Amino acid sequence: MTLTDQLNRPLHDLRISVTDRCNFRCTYCMPATIFGEGYRFLPKSEVLSFEEITRLVRILVPLGVRKVRLTGGEPLVRKDIERLVGQIAAVPGVEDIALTTNGYFLPQKAQALKDAGLRRITISLDSLDNAVFRALNGDRADVSDVLAGIEAAERAGFAPIKINAVIKRGVNEGSVVDLARFCRERGYIARFIEYMDVGNVNGWRMDDVVSADEIVALIDAELPLEPVPPNYFGEVAQRYRYRDGGGEVGVIASVTRPFCGACTRLRLSPEGRIYTCLFATHGVDLRGPLRAGAPDDEIAAIVRQGWQRRADRYSELRAAQTAPREPKVEMYYIGG
Ligand code: SAM
Ligand code: SF4
Ligand code: SF4
Is the pTM of the predicted complex or chain greater than 0.85? Predict the structure, then answer.
């Protein structure tokens, strides 16, 4: 029987944040002022091992999970991440395994990831203008570093490559058309993401959000677009194609057009807590039972109960939110 939550949504996708660490300090995610020298990341002993993660994936497949995405933090800073990819790819019932990365380490890692069975890759790049990009990533990398990563992914045989760009008003909306053109010319799929109020540290304000409609209008003015129907129920991106047949582009309107009704994602944090929403304030610990020797069915029961109780629809309620909330979990902690 299909496991469903309070809003009748099945469990289908699992996003695994494999580490809370990152080599970038994007202002909208891990601002350098907070994640400085003195910041204490999780010690290794508290982070799930590859074997523990793989066991959880195996337990979650009978509950509905078919798609797995590795994220973070930066998943490629986790040593030998390709080994985890290989282990998850070998779990019967996992139909798709994808990874989201800032691209910096792809020149060293792309081929190993492909060989291990990674099916799809999404690379984040917020601007092709080096000064704008450096300002956004906390002065950690140049555009050329990410371009080298994208090229390595292409050489390794990943296709089509998706490029994620978060657009923040007054910062990089001037980069939208350049990025769209760049992706179109190279056959990559651009995905423009509305800046979200994830976590508590990025100082989010509604005024900083460039809406999906605005993003589409910016592109459409230079490269005419038409909407494309969704590929499948629950597709997060709204897709458009270039009228001249030159490929497609997507916008993720999590703020202005929330898609909670179709949200089938469960998130696993680096130290083994599960969260039923990107904006959750609480997670449920699985590492404790896992390390205490609980059998698979006991762990499955914890997840099943958590999913059955799930009524999250934060983005749909955001506009109506007036009372202060408890602190939300951070993005680098449960992955984008
Ligand atoms: N480090 C990897 C990366 O940057 O691709 C994976 C983790 S990152 C948290 C996943 C995605 O979330 C990235 O594409 C990033 O741009 C996006 N993201 C982070 N903070 C965001 C925010 N406040 N609003 C919208 N998207 C955000
Ligand atoms: Fe790191 Fe990705 Fe967050 Fe940027 S968005 S700080 S690359 S985890
Ligand atoms: Fe899913 Fe929560 Fe985002 Fe709604 S706000 S789409 S429930 S993660």
Answer: yes
